[in-house]
Design goal:
Layout lengths: L1 H18 L15 E5 L4 H6 L4 H10 L4 E5 H8 L5 H4 L8
Antiparallel strand pairs: 1-2
Helix pairs in contact: 1-3
């Protein structure tokens, strides 16, 4: 059961990454490794259970894609530290996936 659930989470993650363009959305980067979903706008999930389970994060991304950006680990860190703003990245965020 656990494996099946993990497989589904993996597939969901892959699908979401493809929908976000399959690469880091920082136009100065475009990396395809270590991709992560970064909060661009606060969602209910971020307020209640920030940084909790991976699964919750994934379903939150699919529910609120406009609140997330796909970034590589390095850009995610720069983004979270405030060194890079979403506007600086010229993020074209998908709406209503
Ligand atoms: Zn990047």
């Amino acid at each position: 059961v656990t494996n099946k659930r993990n497989d589904r989470a993996k597939r969901q993650r892959k699908t979401l990454i493809e929908r976000f363009g399959g690469k880091c959305q920082n136009p100065n980067c475009g990396s395809t490794s270590e991709l992560q979903f970064a909060h661009v706008e606060p969602t209910k999930l971020s307020a209640i259970s920030r940084g909790r389970g991976r699964k919750e994060r994934l379903s939150d991304v699919s529910k609120h894609p406009e609140c997330y950006a796909l970034l590589c680990e390095e850009c995610h860190r720069a983004f979270d530290s405030g060194a890079v703003l979403p506007e600086d990245m010229g993020l074209a965020r998908p709406k209503n996936l």
